[in-house]
Design goal:
single chain, four-stranded mixed beta sheet, binds uridine-diphosphate-N-acetylglucosamine
Length: about 425
């Protein structure tokens, strides 16, 4: 197994390019199942989660040509509509094939994803929405077995009692080929949802309310979508936010290219409140200018977009460890998303947990140590802390990082970090 070895305390500088968003690319790939013709995708991040979902489509019988940041998927004919446990267990987001498979082929089986390191993560909202559209759903042998009525899924009014990115995506994809109008109330508003809506619209579904909490979809009545233009995945706001945090924690001026600034606003706001300032050399780039003296404390409550993203909570916590006063960080989305706390404390941080609130007490310095990555974003928080810590930090179990950050080590090295990827002996 590989690990990252970081010699901390080195200032960073320079410019890096941000890749396509993993969380936007996953539903875009799943939506290719809604078409019977080749779909061309570009700006895909080259990360494990993307390869995993493409592999699943291949197992289902789609033809998949993937090279670098591009893929061509042809789901004209599938051999199977069963998303097997072996793949879903590797990546929960595989559940995103449920809506497209069911609406296009009338029946499918998808392994239940189960919980994960950050919490239980149920899929009840996904299932309720599909049932409201007429699907019969049975859970048997660890699989969701879904069957659509013989005339296909029917448009319905779906009121989510909780905002869910994944459930909104599955519902949108199912609704795209359904008969009649589907209305989604309390829909997620994340940029990933906007990208998916635009894609479905370009393929022939009629969609209104894009980017709002109330989306209506007029389905094609069973006709597959046809995407005439390639779909280019939007920039990764979480990857970008992570590098902004690298600038803040190491007090380094860093420029990021290929970003969508609007998507970064809540992270920029928090870093600004800590004393950083920002420049925007072009419409698609941002430069962080950290203060010369210590960062100020920050108070964060995670929320749905456009609120502060839970996927940036761990990274901001790493930055807050070196602030001049106590910061409070409340996690509202996932019940167990604080696995990084004890590891950050191993690096000399002083963080106390009470329920879903972390009190991050200021320390003068962090010190290198061996730490263990527990989930994707927690892992990047440990890397950030390692960049600022005195001495050597070794971050183990970095397969979590490989799931969602393309060449993190290479990009940090490009900025001047002393970071090596090594093999465990
Ligand atoms: C997506 C992102 C993930 C991010 C999360 C929240 C992808 C691949 N992953 O995950 O990185 O952290 O959004 O921004 O895009 N819930 C239910 N029932 C359901 C579905 C969700 O109770 O059927 C709950 C979840 O447990 C959680 C909350 O709703 O507490 C939000 O989860 P959701 O938005 O669905 O997250 P994901 O789509 O899984």
């Amino acid at each position: 197994m590989d690990y990252l070895q970081i010699e901390g305390g080195k200032p960073l500088s320079g410019t890096i390019k941000i890749g396509g968003a993993k969380n936007a690319a996953l539903p875009v790939i799943a939506a290719a199942l809604l078409s019977d013709r080749p779909v061309l995708l570009s700006n895909l991040p080259n990360v494990v989660d993307i390869r995993t979902l493409l592999r699943l489509l291949g197992i289902l019988g789609a033809s998949v040509e993937h090279e670098g940041h591009q893929a061509q998927i042809n789901a004209g004919a599938l051999q199977s509509t069963r998303a097997v446990y072996e793949i879903v267990a590797q990546m929960r987001a595989s559940i995103l094939v449920l809506g497209p498979l069911l609406t296009r082929f009338g029946e499918c089986e998808v392994s239940l994803p189960g919980g994960c390191a950050i919490g239980q993560r149920p899929i009840d909202l996904h299932l309720k929405a599909l049932e409201a559209m007429g699907a019969s759903i049975e859970i048997k042998g660890g699989y969701v077995h879904a069957v659509a009525p013989s005339e296909g899924l029917q448009g319905a009014k779906i009121i989510f009692d909780k905002v869910s990115v994944g459930a909104t995506e599955n519902t949108l994809m199912a609704a795209a080929l359904a008969h009649g109008k589907t209305e989604i109330i309390n829909a997620a508003r994340e940029p990933e949802i906007v990208q998916l809506c635009e894609m479905l619209k370009s393929g022939g579904a009629k969609i209104e309310g894009i980017g709002t909490g109330r989306i209506t979809v007029e389905g094609t009545g069973g006709a597959p979508l046809h995407f005439k233009k390639p779909i280019s995945v939007i920039p990764d706001r979480i990857e970008a936010g992570t590098y902004l945090c690298a600038g803040a924690i190491t007090h380094s001026k860093i420029t990021l290219e290929s970003v969508q600034i609007e998507h970064l606003q809540s992270t920029i706001d928090k870093l600004e409140s800590m004393g950083c300032s920002f420049g925007f050399p072009t419409e698609e780039s941002v430069t962080i200018h950290p203060p010369e003296d210590r960062l100020k404390e920050v108070n964060i409550v995670t929320a749905e977009y456009p609120g502060f993203p839970t996927d940036m909570q761990a990274q901001l916590m790493a930055v807050a460890t070196l602030a001049s006063n106590e910061s409070l960080i409340e996690e509202r989305l996932f019940e167990n998303r604080f696995m990084h706390v004890s590891e950050l404390n191993r690096l000399g941080a002083d963080i106390w947990l009470k329920g879903n609130v972390a009190a991050v007490r200021p320390v003068e310095e962090l010190f290198g140590a061996d730490v263990m990555a527990t989930d994707l974003r927690a892992s990047s928080a440990l890397v950030l802390a390692g960049l600022a810590a005195k001495g050597t930090t070794r971050v183990r179990r970095i397969y979590h990082l490989d799931r969602g950050y393309e060449d993190l080590q290479g990009k940090l090295e490009q900025l001047g970090a002393a970071i090596l990827r090594k093999k465990e002996r």
